[in-house]
Structures are given as C-alpha cells and as structure tokens.
Amino acid sequence: EKNPERVAAGLKSTVHNPRTSEEAKANAAKRLDEMDVEVEQPDTSRSQSGDNRVMGGYRATLKNPRVSEEAKEHAKEVLEENDEPLSTHPEHVAAGYKATIHNPNVSKEAKKHAKQELHKMG
C-alpha cells in the first residue's frame, strides 16, 4: 500500500514543477484537494541557485545510508520529474576527492580511497 504522505509529496512536486503540463498540474491539484491536502503557491522569487541546491539535496539523499528506501524513492521521483540527473557532475566528484586528499582531518584510508577513485576517473 502506498504511503499517503509520499503520494501527496509527489503530487505537490508535480504542481510546482515548471516542466509539467498544465493538465498534469490540474490533475495533481485535484487529487490533493480530494486528499484534503493544501497546496502552497509556488515561490516564484526562488533563485536558480536555490533550485540547484534543492536538487543537489535530493541527489545526496540517494546516497545517504541513513535515509529510508522510501525517501530515496521519493528523491528519485522528484529528480526524474525535474529532468535532473540522478548522479552528480563528474568534475564535482573529482574536486571532492582532491579535497579529501589534501584535508589533514581525513584518515589515510579515506585518502587512499580518494586516490584510487581519481585514478579510475582518469
């Protein structure tokens, strides 16, 4: 059985997605109304960098071991609905590994792993 809270979250995402058709938004809003869930009006003042941070948060959710499978599935749905890649940009991953290598607070084991991953990346 589907979790009503997750269903509502997906429907809200549809309502607020600028890439979603008006018909899909109307259908989602109708279902939310039937579920007695209030839909907040989208904040049109939100910046592009804010959107990027939100999408980055969903991508991070996919790899976080402390997050439930249900939350990961929701994050995946939101990313797909927004035509966002499920993984990060390779250049950002490489930059993270390089930072790990130079960070004095990181264990030798983590630095070794970062070097191995950078080597795999070319």
Automatic annotation (TrEMBL):
Compositionally biased region (Polar residues): 42-51
Basic and acidic residues bias locations: 19-34, 66-79
> So which residues are the signal peptide here?
none
- Which InterPro entries does its entry note? Conidiation-specific_6 (IPR018824), UPF0654_domain (IPR052670)
Annotated segments matching region Disordered? 1-88, 100-122
Sorted alphabetically, the Gene Ontology cellular component annotations on this record are:
cytoplasm
Q: What is this protein called?
A: Conidiation-specific protein 6
Starting at the broadest rank, the lineage of the source organism is:
Eukaryota, Fungi, Dikarya, Basidiomycota, Agaricomycotina
